Structure formats: structure tokens, C-alpha cells
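Forwarding the complex inputs:
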Amino acid sequence: MKILITSGGTSEAIDSVRAITNQSTGSLGKIMAEIFLKAGHEVTLVTTKNAVKPAEQSRLTIYQITDVASLIATLKTLVKSHDVLIHSMAVSDYTPVYMADFAELQTVTDPAQLLAKRNQETKISSQAEHQVLFLTKTPKVISQIVEWNPNIKLIGFKLLVDVPHEELIEVARESLIKNKADYILANDLKDIQAHQHIGYLVSKTEEIRANTKEDIAQLILERITDD
Amino acid sequence: MKILITSGGTSEAIDSVRAITNQSTGSLGKIMAEIFLKAGHEVTLVTTKNAVKPAEQSRLTIYQITDVASLIATLKTLVKSHDVLIHSMAVSDYTPVYMADFAELQTVTDPAQLLAKRNQETKISSQAEHQVLFLTKTPKVISQIVEWNPNIKLIGFKLLVDVPHEELIEVARESLIKNKADYILANDLKDIQAHQHIGYLVSKTEEIRANTKEDIAQLILERITDD
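Prediction (whole assembly, two chains):
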């Protein structure tokens, strides 16, 4: 089976030296890749510079991306040639459009005027006491996967922070339906520590709990090969 | 000699999953540490998780920091017990104070009202088409060094992007005087590539050019031991 995994977190540049990053170590992606390779599958890992990665080995191909635009360009092609996509990457929801001194915001009658502006400098200057950064939503990657390959098996991820269990599962199920995914791995940042990673593999009808990254990888492997 | 080096780039958290990062690989800090250790000095390296680091060895101590607040807390103590500080870290100029949907900005009569607000959520929600992030200046670390230790030899760094040479040297010299530094290493991002790193070691009276990271390290070493 040809399995595509995304891991790590995207970064959206503010200027040539600063970026908004989504913090993600890539550990789960690395463990999934290793377990799937061991089971005899071909793995393509789309990840980021700072994410941890498996050692080079046969049947493993690694692509490195930076921002959402490069993620989309890379996935659009790869999704067509894979049987499964496990999309565990932490993808930026917003990307910077314009950064201004606070004073500029106070001079405009409608702040929406600033949404149309773009920075000309390559390194935005830093004299003002306060700055304001305008951001716009990035295109949702996961919602396009099934359009690019209607036959792919799609496992999405949903990370929330410190929410009741019912809410976590409900939000995961909404994502499942909206993005035509086969499963969503729902997890809460409060349940992720060095040797514990509680996750719930949610389908339309069930939710199965796993307690470590290895358990999550094993559970996903069973589901994608059994179904 | 006890030499303190900072390297890598700080990150300022927006919420529990996103941060504004200053991109810096830490390569120059690593090379300086290695060359100074080889010359028989004691090196303390204050760096970040994603920065490259020298191998563990005797006479090398590494501290890991994240944001400007943790950098200040760490340096405040270390500066007192070192003879030299080489401050090559890319330090965040601004830190997030409040992130809001764009609609909230359009409802207030004075945008300054939002500077006093704080996000209550641990992961800021992402429904709106546009968001706006308010930032405030971080305390300038370099300007406090000589207050903490009047006897320390201070080498600061100034990175600009695609400016004329005269401007680069002028800005470095302003920083030298303002921060009571002994030298400023002035460099332009356009002159930094894989095997080239043009830098100018600027004092009140001279500017000496170096062409690689190794040259920069060697030049700084000569100056701090000769003076």
C-alpha cells in the first residue's frame, strides 16, 4: 500500500526574517512512518525542516515544505498516486497580509483599507511601540483531498486545547463529514506529554481510544489495512 | 576566558499552538563556539530548540531558551559571570498581546481599546475570514547587558536586508554607541548563503570585512583576546 503522511507544522512568512509557525515536533508522523514501513508499506512523508524524521531507508520518500501554498502544491500531485493520506501536519489557519505601525491603523477611517495593503520592505521596520498584523484565512487543505483523488482513504487530525471530551468528539465528527474523511484522530493538547498521547480515532459510528503515539500508529495501520 | 554566546531565534507565543518566530539556524553561533573551545576558552551557549548546536564536550555549557522573557531571565545571571558576550541571537522585536476577529476591530471607536484586551482561549478560534494581531515591543536585551556587568566585553549583531553598504555600517555604529558595545557585527541577509557569510566587524574607528562564518568567528576571537 502507498501511504502518504504529513507531519510537522507549517510556517507563514511575515517578512524575510519572521514567520508565524504552528508548533509541532513531527514525532507522531515519524513513528507512524516507521511502523508502516516495518509492516511492508511504501511511505511518502511530507514534512517541515524542524520536524523530526525517520532515518533514510528504502521505501521511504521525504518531501520538505514550508507554508500552506507549498503544502498544497506538493500534496496536489502526491495525493493522486497514493492509497491513503494521514494528514497529521499542523497547518496554519491564517497567513499574514500586512503589518503596520499602530499609528497607521488610527489614521484610517475603515480598518478594511489596510487589508488591501502590502509591505514593501523585505524586513519590516520596528520603531513603533505597537504594531498590528492583518491576517487572512489560508485555503483549507483537507477539504480538497477527496476532490484531488476520490479513491483515497483520508485520515484527518483535529487538535483542540483543554475542551470537554464530548466537544472534542463532536468537532472531530463535524470535520469527518465536512471533509469526507474516513477517520479523524481527535486529540487534546492537555493529553499529550512525553510518554502519553491520548487520541480518539473517530468514524461515523465509533470512537476508539489510544494512549500513546505507538498505539495511535498501530490503530490507524489496522484500520487502513482491514477496511 | 569565559565566553557567552547567544544563537538561534526567539519565538513569541500567540497561543498554545502558534508563535511568531525569528528564523535563524544557529550555524554561526555553533561555529563560533567550536572555534573558541578549540582555542582553549570556556563557552556558554544560550540557544533555542531548533538551532544547530556543537557536540557535547568539556568546557561547553548549553542553555535553551524560548522567548525574550526567558532570554532575559537567563542572560541576567550569566552575563555577570562571563568576560565576553557575543549576542548573535535573532531576538523578536515584538510580542503578541491580543488576537481578534477583524469584525471586532470594526466595532470599536478607538483601536487602542484592543491593546488592553487579552485572549481567554488557549487555542484562538479560527472562523473569521480575517484576523488582526496586536503586538507590543519587547524589552531591548542588548541595551541592558552593560548595566548587568559593566566589565563585560560586548559584541552585538545587526542584520539588515538588502540595504546599501553605507547604511549597514551607519546603523551598526548607532547600535554600537547606543548599547555601549565594543563591536557590532553588521551583516545583510542578501550576503548570507550556504558557503558565504559576509560580515563587517564594526568598532568606533574601523570596519573589518570577513567572508565566511569561520572568518567571522576567527576575527571576533582575535579581537576579544588581543584587546
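Helices of chain B lie at 27-38, 68-78, 102-107, 145-148, 165-178, 213-226.
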